[in-house]
Amino acid sequence: MDIRVLKSTVKVLVEEGKGILAADESTPTIKRRFEIIGLESTPETNRIYRQLLFTTPGIEEFISGVIMFDETLRQKTDGGIPFPKLLSDRGIISGVKVDKGKVKIPNFPSEEITEGLDGLRERLLEYKAMGASFTKWRAVFLIGQKTPSAVCIESNADLMARFAVFSQEVDLVPIIEPEVLMEGTHDITKSEEVTYRVLKTIFKRLMDYKVIFEGMLLKPNWVHHGLDCKNKASNEKIAEATLKVMKEVVPSQVPGLVFLSGGDSPEESTIHINDMNRIDKVSWQISFSFGRALQQKVLQVWMGDPSRIKEAQKVFYKRARRNSLARTGQYKEEMEAENGE
């Protein structure tokens, strides 16, 4: 393990004005995304779409890293250039999702645990040889009357810590993504309580395993009311509640928080990043690691049509730029109505 390598990678990933593109949708997830636009997901259509994103002119101004799925990391451009090299030549770091997805926890209905430790050491070395500099592991926590349980939280925390240790062992920066889901009727107070409990447990476990905080990133959810909650919180309240929990739980040594968008719209997600960067000065960089919030409108424009690639790339560029502005609190909602922006 070389702490200098880890710190160097993190520094690039959380560079001011830049964020991470999460293009690591699993096979079932991208299949669902493509079905919405009436397109069949195949390795080739997946490749063409990722190529559209990665070759967008100018995105290196706003995107510091890209998280890829195993399939994507192995793919190449039309001209035969491996995606990691394409991105590296533009100053963008490649990362890879290394967990193997979620499975049900026996005796705990509606709760899941993330798998993927089997063979992880070998896979990490392979990914590193292919050009990856960082990794990601996601776990999910559902808010209900009796969930998330201590078993669910503690089991996932242990797996995340082991993933982080294995990644740092081979100089790959781990991004830990514990997502408290928005699904449900809970209010923002309940979300605050659960997010605190989840993160408190995870950081305790990371400390137990001697994970180097300076060489990792956290990809958290917003503290947010449930999607079916009648008492919806304002954007300002979401930003304030989220920052409150992060200050209480996240060690100052962690260089950055790269937020996931969850179930919020692209515009709402940008607003949250902007609000948090305007409310208070904190020890970490407050950035983004968006998938759907960067890609949703791109897919709607592209629709699988080769003649619409350039138009879709312009949409992607605009969305990335607006999130870049949010990193320094300079985003304004009026920008959404400006076609030339």
TrEMBL record:
It is an enzyme of class 4 (lyase). It comes from the Bacteria. NCBIfam families: FrucBisAld_I. This is Fructose-bisphosphate aldolase. The lineage of its organism: Bacteria, Candidatus Woeseibacteriota. The keyword Cell membrane does not apply. GO terms for molecular function: fructose-bisphosphate aldolase activity. Keywords: Glycolysis, Lyase. Its EC number is 4.1.2.13. Belongs to the class I fructose-bisphosphate aldolase family. It catalyses: beta-D-fructose 1,6-bisphosphate = D-glyceraldehyde 3-phosphate + dihydroxyacetone phosphate. Pathway: Carbohydrate degradation; glycolysis; D-glyceraldehyde 3-phosphate and glycerone phosphate from D-glucose: step 4/4. GO terms for biological process: glycolytic process.
